[in-house]
């Protein structure tokens, strides 16, 4: 472990108060502390419990009473949510929804009866703490006399496996960068998909069509991670196993935003459980594990003195973590090759309508059966260049190989079948149908349901005992792992009475899925996208089941307001170009709907002038292409360089000294060109066209602006760092300039 | 043996010029067993292991070993050996992925002595099943002049489109034309006979179109139309084994298209390997 500063005398304290035979209380103490890790090659702050990342694995047996005592030794408040666990609402661990946050320096006890068995996990539900280490495995063992005990599955050696990722950037900064459209992560991952790259790969038309449809570069994930981890390590070995052993891995994806592909170098993977629920064993070659899902798999060690690699590769293929199972020499997996982004872009172009909606395929697309991303996978589509050359070299071998790659079995939700009937008794329970459309706006990173972020909606009242049947349609460009607190739901997947029970459902773009569950536990239950940054952007709802009085939350209304506020934070952004001919910059305060922005051009002398434009506007519509605003302009200048004062409409526009109030709007045209129209209080009208951040090459961005005042500007910016670039521009007011562009 | 290795490492250090030391700081030298055959292997192994200012690898065929000089502050021997294994070469610490090994040039296919003895057979029954399938397909080909023959040729045409092979598709379409012409109507039921009479003109025309199309995109379009025409025939005149009517919702910008297949498992003829498993079963015709 790379953990430092571990000076805890009381480590894991496990006391058994087994007075009554069947009813025993199992207690864990968790000491939350700041720590320093070097997962990304440099020292960074993280949060550990009992000196560990991941947090300690908590093991209980069905029938136990779980007691977890949290000692918050952090400088901030915290909480712990028991993911997938059925428990009284007040133990669910969502601050401002089921409890108040655990203040720094205090001790807090969670206590609940364990009434289920399977693989679960726990994590902080406070802010972005989950990204910096606050995740751990939780196992509820079956009782030996359980009628569902499966020989060869429930009685073989078991290891908990926690997947996660690490970024050296502070998660609060990651979140801000996502909202301000900083493309540094894309540069680091080499996924900018610029025009130069498009031309090189013969996809110029694809790129133009993409921008014509007002899409920015598509990616399968948004955040750049320095490393990916299995049980807190990039590579590790389970040397206690030997040839012939079958090992059950209880895998939980504790990543904040990464999906992982799981592949095994020692043959087939047998999937035996999902989200804590047994499924009928199914053999696959690989599977994708969505954010916050759990899968139990069994692997076999086929040969002597060999350990076999289980790889967890990030969906965007930017990295992987390895776990070698067995003793001896390490048999590697074939690494998953880089994605073909332009193929994905082409597919996206076909699938998206001009108005930003996806083609709705109804139930034809569901349950991960059609992985549209597959067009980007070279191992599926065949690596064109390599294929050809090696084909010439050794014909038939390559042929066999090709056969292998397309016959690869990939797990999808339709293949999951429960071990027992899961049908809900609808004879005397009322059934209620709900439909949600998952909506989002990549460009501004607003994520919502039915185009409403959480701060724009009330809790959804549900009668206790009601059966909810929810249809979800993903009309956004990204996949979402939708998680329901407090219940398992049936995922309608063509297995009839044996539909699998889950608590997380991954839904890909354009997919429609149906889930149903009986709302038989009172309380306020969160229903949200488990990608941390989507959740924090507002992709949440709350089901309010029954009339639950939570002793921990005397003022529920007020608490809910705080929760709403937390999921629609205001983001601040500022940038300035310190150029030879003046300062050129802007500052913005934005949330999901509102934007307050100021742009300035400040010359170094009166001739160049000084100019400030401020706009307060509200984004309208799902795609947020339209923003009406009120504006306030001020400028001062001595006549000089560009001395026409008449605009194209023949109106005279005093440039020397002008203060004006305006009404206007901005609309995003195809090719992401912003059209802005403004009328000032004195009747003067100004129309402008502008475009920022044209991705010319991986690090080079271009931009332009022209308006009816006959002003114009062109610029080029070379990105050096996430906060730094070199910019050169020509401006009709201030002339030519070169400078250092700094952004925050 | 030890002395040989010693001399090899000494030689390699001397021969690979002094600039190693200029390049690699905090130099540490270690020797590891690395399998390989020829000069081509040598080039691949060294290229995979080398990293500017970080690691310098010299591989020797006779001793099957690599001497590695690396900057102990920047990297470790594990990382270097992993890169070499990922390039296809088994070594003391890592075994190459099987797929990468198979793709090595013929002369580089060294004997994999480092692999452990297998005690669990890995999915052998699977290949068995496949052989069985092939077998039953061959049997069907024996009969002729029946609708079964038409469909068998159709399935071969479909397979050609699945593998995106336009030339094979053309030749399969030609055989399909022959099968259509030589179909003996008396082998059909009354109902099927009626449908065949209604459709045969269009079926022939569409098949002709496939023969005459020069590119796979056009062939696929005609194949989509052909499949819809054959569907009622298959319903009226069931084959020996069940047929699956399958659907690809994305073809032609979301208009979608159907095809017929003997296998429940989806292999999409409209996109081929690009979207191999994309699609769904609409109907199972027994």
What does this structure look like?
The complex is a heterodimer of chains A (744) and B (286). With 744 residues, chain A is mostly beta strands. Chain A is built from ten helices and 44 strands. Chain A has four domains: 15-143, Cupredoxins -  blue copper proteins (Immunoglobulin-like), CATH 2.60.40.420; 227-331, Cupredoxins -  blue copper proteins (Immunoglobulin-like, Sandwich); 431-546, Sandwich (Immunoglobulin-like); 571-743, Beta Barrel (Porin), CATH 2.40.160. In chain A, a hairpin with a 4-residue loop joins β41 and β42 (712-721). Chain A is globular, with a radius of gyration of 28 Å. The model of chain A is unreliable at 1-21 and 383-405 (pLDDT under 50). Chain B has two domains: 2-108, Alpha-Beta Plaits (2-Layer Sandwich); 141-285, no CATH class. Chains A and B meet through β21, α5, α7 and α8 of A and α4, β4 and α5 of B. β21 (329-331) of chain A pairs parallel with β4 of chain B.
**CATH topology title of the largest domain in chain A:** Porin
What is the total tally of β strands of chain B? Answer: 7
So what's the CATH class of the largest domain in chain A?
A: Mainly Beta
User: What number is the mean pLDDT of chain A?
Assistant: 85
The helix content of chain B, as a percent range, equals 40-55%
Provide the number of structural domains of chain B: 2
List key phrases describing it.
heterodimer, A: 744 residues, mainly beta, Immunoglobulin-like, 4 domains, twelve-stranded antiparallel barrel, six-stranded mixed β-sheet, 10 helices, 11% helix, globular, disordered N terminus, B: 286 residues, alpha+beta, Alpha-Beta Plaits, three-stranded antiparallel β-sheet, 11 helices, signal (chain B)
């Amino acid at each position: 472990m790379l953990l430092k500063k571990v000076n805890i005398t009381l480590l894991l304290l496990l006391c058994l108060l087994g007075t009554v035979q069947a009813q025993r209380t199992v207690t864990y103490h968790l000491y939350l502390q700041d720590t320093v890790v070097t997962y990304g090659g440099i020292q960074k702050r993280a949060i550990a419990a009992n000196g560990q990342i991941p947090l300690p694995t908590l093991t209980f047996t069905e029938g136990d009473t779980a007691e977890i005592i949290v000692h918050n030794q952090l400088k901030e408040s915290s909480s712990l949510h028991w993911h997938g666990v059925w428990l009284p609402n007040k133990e669910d661990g969502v601050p401002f929804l089921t409890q108040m946050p655990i203040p720094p320096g205090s001790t807090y006890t969670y206590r609940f009866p364990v009434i289920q068995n399977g693989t679960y996990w726990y994590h902080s539900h406070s802010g972005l703490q989950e990204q910096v280490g606050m995740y751990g495995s939780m196992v509820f063992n079956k009782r030996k006399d359980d009628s569902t005990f499966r020989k060869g599955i429930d009685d073989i050696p078991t290891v908990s496996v926690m997947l996660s990722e690490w970024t050296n950037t502070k998660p609060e900064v990651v979140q801000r960068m996502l909202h301000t459209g900083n493309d540094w992560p894309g540069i680091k991952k080499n996924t900018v998909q610029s025009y130069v790259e498009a031309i090189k790969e013969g996809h110029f038309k694809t790129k133009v069509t993409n921008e014509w449809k007002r899409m920015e570069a598509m990616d399968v994930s948004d955040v750049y991670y320095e490393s990916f981890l299995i049980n807190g390590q990039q590579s590790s070995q389970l040397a206690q196993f030997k040839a012939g052993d079958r090992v059950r891995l209880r895998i939980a994806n504790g990543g904040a935003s990464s999906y992982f592909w799981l592949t095994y170098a020692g043959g087939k993977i047998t999937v035996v459980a999902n989200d804590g629920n047994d499924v009928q064993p199914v053999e696959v070659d690989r599977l994708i594990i969505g954010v916050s899902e759990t899968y139990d798999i069994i692997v076999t060690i086929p040969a002597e003195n060999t350990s076999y690699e289980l790889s967890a590769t990030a969906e965007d293929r930017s990295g992987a973590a390895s776990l070698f199972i067995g003793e001896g020499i390490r048999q590697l997996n074939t690494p998953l090759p880089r994605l073909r982004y332009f193929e994905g872009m082409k597919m996206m172009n076909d699938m998206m309508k001009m108005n930003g909606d996806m083609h709705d395929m109804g139930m034809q697309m569901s349950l991960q059966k059609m992985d549209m991303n597959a067009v980007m996978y070279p191992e599926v589509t065949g690596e064109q260049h390599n294929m050809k050359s090696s084909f010439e070299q050794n014909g038939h071998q390559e042929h066999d190989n090709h056969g292998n790659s397309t016959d690869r079995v990939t797990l999808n939700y339709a293949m999951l079948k429960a071990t027992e009937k899961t049908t809900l008794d609808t004879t005397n329970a009322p059934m209620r149908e709900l439909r949600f459309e998952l909506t989002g706006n990549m460009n501004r990173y607003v994520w919502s349901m039915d185009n409403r972020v959480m701060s724009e909606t009330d809790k959804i009242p549900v009668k206790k005992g009601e059966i909810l049947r929810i249809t979800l349609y993903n009309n956004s460009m990204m996949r979402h792992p939708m998680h329901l607190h407090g219940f398992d739901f049936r995922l309608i997947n063509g297995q009839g009475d044996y539909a699998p029970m889950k608590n997380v459902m991954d839904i890909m773009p354009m997919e429609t899925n149906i889930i149903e569950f009986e709302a038989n536990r009172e309380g306020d239950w969160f229903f949200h996208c488990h990608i941390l940054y989507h959740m924090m952007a507002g992709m949440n709802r709350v089901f309010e089941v029954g009339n639950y009085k939570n002793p921990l939350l005397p003022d529920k209304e007020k608490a809910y307001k705080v929760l709403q506020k937390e999921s629609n934070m205001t983001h601040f952004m500022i940038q300035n170009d310190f150029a030879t001919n003046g300062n050129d910059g802007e500052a913005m305060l934005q949330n999901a709907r509102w934007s307050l922005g100021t742009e300035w051009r400040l010359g170094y002398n009166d001739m160049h002038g000084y100019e400030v434009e401020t706009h307060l506007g509200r984004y309208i519509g799902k795609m947020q292409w339209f923003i009406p605003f009120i504006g306030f302009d001020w400028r001062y200048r001595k006549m000089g360089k560009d001395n026409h004062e008449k605009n194209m409409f023949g109106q005279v526009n005093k440039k020397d000294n002008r203060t004006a109030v305006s009404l206007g709007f901005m609309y995003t045209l195809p090719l992401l060109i912003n059209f802005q129209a403004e009328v000032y209080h004195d009747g003067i009208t100004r129309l402008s066209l502008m475009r920022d951040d044209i991705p010319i090459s991986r690090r080079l961005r271009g931009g332009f602006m022209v308006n009816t005042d006959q002003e114009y500007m062109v610029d080029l910016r070379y990105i050096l760092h996430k906060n730094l670039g070199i910019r050169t521009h020509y401006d009709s007011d201030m002339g030519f300039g070169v400078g250092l562009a700094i952004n925050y | 043996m030890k002395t040989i290795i010693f001399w090899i490492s000494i030689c390699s250090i001397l021969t690979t010029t002094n600039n190693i030391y200029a390049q690699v700081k905090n130099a540490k030298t270690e020797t590891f067993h690395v399998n390989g055959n020829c000069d081509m292997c040598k080039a691949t192994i060294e290229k995979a292991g080398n990293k500017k200012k970080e690691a310098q690898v010299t591989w020797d065929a006779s001793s099957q070993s690599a001497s590695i000089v690396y900057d102990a502050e920047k990297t470790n021997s594990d990382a270097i050996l992993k890169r070499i294994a990922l390039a296809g070469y088994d070594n003391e610490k890592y075994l190459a992925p099987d797929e990468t090994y198979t793709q090595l040039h013929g002369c580089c296919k060294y004997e994999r002595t480092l692999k452990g003895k297998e005690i669990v057979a890995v999915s052998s029954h699977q290949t068995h099943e496949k052989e069985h399938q092939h077998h039953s397909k061959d049997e069907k080909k024996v009969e002729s002049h029946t609708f079964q023959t038409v469909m068998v040729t159709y399935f071969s045409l479909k397979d050609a489109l699945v593998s995106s092979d336009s030339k094979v598709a053309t030749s399969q379409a030609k055989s399909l034309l022959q099968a259509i012409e030589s179909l003996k109507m008396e082998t059909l039921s009354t109902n099927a006979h009626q449908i065949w009479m209604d459709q045969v003109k269009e079926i022939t025309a569409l098949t002709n179109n496939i023969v005459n199309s020069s590119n796979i995109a056009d062939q696929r379009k005609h194949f989509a139309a052909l499949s819809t025409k054959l569907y009622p025939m298959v319903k009226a005149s069931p084959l020996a084994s069940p047929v699956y009517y399958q659907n690809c919702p994305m073809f032609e910008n979301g208009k979608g298209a159907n095809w017929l297949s003997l296998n429940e498992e989806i292999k999409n003829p409209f996109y081929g390997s690009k979207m191999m498993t994309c699609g769904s079963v609409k109907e199972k015709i027994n």
